[in-house]
Amino acid sequence: MSTEEQFDRVFKALANPVRRAICDAIRPRPLTTKQLCTEFPTLDRTTVMMHLRVLEEAGLVVPVRKGRERFNHLDAMPIHDIHERWIGPHAAQAVQGLARLKRDLEAVEDKEKQSTD
Fold it and tell me: What is the pTM for the complete model shown?
């Protein structure tokens, strides 16, 4: 699968508010599918499983079977990859701009001090 296809799957998975809520629920700790069903009482088990499947295909959820239970772990690497591609470069530019602004303002302050001395 290409990088672009992987990004498409991640964006599709995160476009749904229920799937984002599932990611939020398993962020602090892995939950079993049964525990997730309890977290979302308005959804039936089949619907929860469908959402988990989409998240798994996007690489956001890693299921680990322990006996009869399936623990769902969040894998934040796909989100990190999106950050690195689209947000990181812009954030770096913003920090560079702020550093330039700080230097320019300090230079103006220094000139003002010199003119008053």
Answer: 0.74
Residues 6+ apart with CB under 8 A from 105: none
pLDDT tens digits, 24-82:
999 999 999 999 999 999 999 999 999 999 999 999 999 999 999 999 999 999 998 88
Structure tokens at 94: 């913003």
Residue 91, CA distances (Å) to 87, 99, 101 in order = 6, 12, 15
21 and 36 in contact (C-beta within 8 Å)? no
The pair phi, psi for residue 42, each rounded to 5°, is -80, -10
Distance of CA 79 to CAs 31, 58, 70, 82, Å? 20, 10, 23, 5
